[in-house]
């Protein structure tokens, strides 16, 4: 959670009941996060009211702490706010994309086609944008990258005709994704045009594509597109940037629809199905748990593939060598900055993070790189037995790696500290550590405890 929200939640530790002030404080932090994420004020106020009411009126189930009680309510109300994912059946259908110029329609069309192709369907993209120079080439190239069928006609000026002919030309495809032109504003001829294309292709689903940075502009767009063609779902693009996409909730609310896909980058694979959990985490500033678990999984799979006999459980049994440390660092490098990862694991928020010595977290990417260079200059037995490394070895390693002796000592210190920390956690019994390990295991990587060391 956002650090201040986390702070407020942490204050509840040890409490079994919520006071009015506790609830006020937490709601205020949530409001701050959501408004910052561009969620409409009216929606934020509705949410706040429900959270306050429930938190103060509902009796926490026996044994529930005040903190867990409010977290559960916040989560449930947030799920209510963001809604479920738009149902996308894996069967033949036509989907039309609408939205303003630059919102990400063409990119999304290719991404969705790629997504459907991975699900075993045969998609085709039909490009009807005759307005924007280069639209044809852009769509064609992206579809080539996605290895999906594409139809467009750079010499034809009538988008409705392209749409009609495109449907015929791609008759053997299962899923037709119709990309449309979006001009810089909601001009009436754009609306007329999209209505005509709609008639020509008769889509099962119209998706409104919104840039995550849309903010309150979402309202008018959503209304107009909904009135003209009917919007069955929303796509939020560019979520890889700083914008959190809260404005899209307004569009969802206005159209009575739901979020279908998220765009998280410029390449065709950068598409995710909307999933409330991750999106909520993002809105609240906690990072995306789903993304984390996929990243952890990928990094662990890669690390383990490189080193088959690595068993993370050995580390828990107390042996933690420099080799283990290096593996942790490799995995970390593949996952991203440590504190961010720690932040993404729910339940870790307050407790565990606060118990770690500050500099356990202080292995910056640069330091990690130096450490790796140093480790490359160590012998196998030094890696296995860091305690055997004395002054003369340090001198030799320094010469071999081109790093100064001080950095090598830092590395050895860091290793010792990680080892100590691990032992400490190992003896924590059924505390946070076990919970964390279990979580990471479920997400596919017991070695995720690299999260602590690296
Ligand atoms: P259209 O005008 O609605 O068809 O929008 P485009 O698909 O042409 O996208 C406009 C710009 O946004 C292009 O430069 C895309 O590469 C970029 N873009 C689209 N989706 C994403 C995304 O999810 N992440 C990022 N970083 N860029 C995106
Ligand atoms: Mg386009």
Descriptive account of the structure:
With 454 residues, the protein is α/β, with parallel strands linked by helices. The protein folds into three domains: 3-82, Up-down Bundle (Four Helix Bundle (Hemerythrin (Met), subunit A)), CATH 1.20.120; 93-283, P-loop containing nucleotide triphosphate hydrolases (Rossmann fold, 3-Layer(aba) Sandwich); 289-453, Signal recognition particle, SRP54 subunit, M-domain (434 Repressor (Amino-terminal Domain)). 56% of the residues lie in helices and 9% in strands. It is built from 22 helices and eight strands. The chain has helices spanning 3-10, 20-36, 41-57, 66-82, 105-118, 135-146, 159-169, 188-201, 218-228, 248-255, 276-283, 289-306, 312-316, 322-335, 338-344, 349-355, 365-376, 380-384, 391-401, 405-426, 432-442, 450-453; strands spanning 93-98, 123-127, 149-151, 175-179, 205-211, 233-237, 259-263, 271-273. It has an eight-stranded mixed beta sheet with strand order 3-2-4-1-5-6-7-8, sandwiched between helices. α1 (3-10) packs antiparallel against α2 (20-36), α3 (41-57) runs antiparallel to α4 (66-82) and α9 packs parallel to α10. The chain is flat. The two termini are 21 Å apart.
